[in-house]
Design brief:
This protein is mostly helical and 270 residues long. The protein has one domain. 73% of the residues lie in helices and 0% in strands.
Length: 270
């Protein structure tokens, strides 16, 4: 049986789409992927000298001691130790850590620049070194420890469950909603044909869909957690036997506390 094909389907058309730059969509997608890769990536190779709880305790204690220290020698020693430990990271993680730390230090320099111009450059130097070291230590922890180990360590330190739950859910939602944004940006880029000067306006649509998707995912997560009997309480990690890592961490902490007391006493005597 013959089929009659409409004449318009038999006509040939030469259509050449105008060149258009999709730099906005590409850069937006790459930015989201970069953030997701930082969250998912860990680089703990070589950093096996401390347990997760011990490493988190060490970093927090060093930041507190460095913040209250009045002797810059202690800050310089902590800075040297941080840079030495960071050398065990992969090249990409090391470069990202240095970049983040330098950005934070530059921000502190800009804030304290008026104080330096008014005759207090030492204050700017002190705060800048402490900010750089603190951010580098936090970057080191985020690169070495998976987030589930961090939340487990926080529970071991008797941190309130509501704080751990908020941190845990926030990190998970950043990853999940980031994947949604990347998929929508890729779909928008593939469906854009020819010259389109209103691609930037699509960002509001992406944000709106992401918000609606977050509401839907929140309801689904609440139902899943309720079905599994979760009531907002995190169980404490099981007590394990002490290992050589705990011994090394304890010796390091004792040495740093003793060095902190010595440096503060030295400056008091001087």
């Amino acid at each position: 049986m013959a089929t009659n094909v409409p004449e318009w389907m038999l006509q040939t058309e030469d259509y050449t789409a105008a060149k258009d730059s999709d730099g906005f969509l590409t850069k937006s997608g790459l930015s989201v992927l970069s953030v997701l890769s930082r969250i998912r990536e860990t680089s703990s190779k070589g950093l096996i000298w401390a347990s997760p709880s011990g490493m988190l305790l060490t970093v927090l204690l060093l930041i507190v001691l460095m913040a209250v220290s009045k002797n810059m020698l202690f800050s310089y020693v902590v800075l040297a130790e941080t840079l030495l430990a960071s050398l065990f990271l992969c090249n990409k993680a090391l470069a990202r850590s240095v970049k983040t730390s330098l950005s934070a230090m530059l921000l502190s320099v800009l804030i304290l620049l008026p104080a330096a111009l008014l005759g207090s450059p030492r204050t700017m130097l002190t705060v800048s070194v402490k900010v750089f070291t603190s951010v580098a230590l936090l970057n080191l922890v985020s690169q070495v420890l998976p987030f589930n180990k961090i939340t487990e360590s926080l529970k071991a330190f008797h941190v309130p469950d509501i704080f751990i739950f908020t941190l845990d859910i926030t990190i998970k939602y950043i990853v999940m909603l980031g994947d949604v944004c990347v998929n929508m940006l890729n779909a928008l880029r593939l469906r854009s044909v020819g010259k389109n000067r209103t691609k930037g306006r699509a960002l509001s649509g992406v944000l709106g869909v992401t918000f609606l998707k977050s509401r839907e995912m929140a309801d689904e997560m609440y139902g899943a957690m309720a079905c599994r009997g979760f009531e907002g309480e995190y169980t404490k990690p099981r007590t394990r036997a002490l290992s050589w890592k705990d011994g090394v961490t304890a010796l390091f902490l004792v040495a740093m506390i003793a060095f902190f007391i010595y440096t503060q006493h030295a400056i008091a005597v001087a």
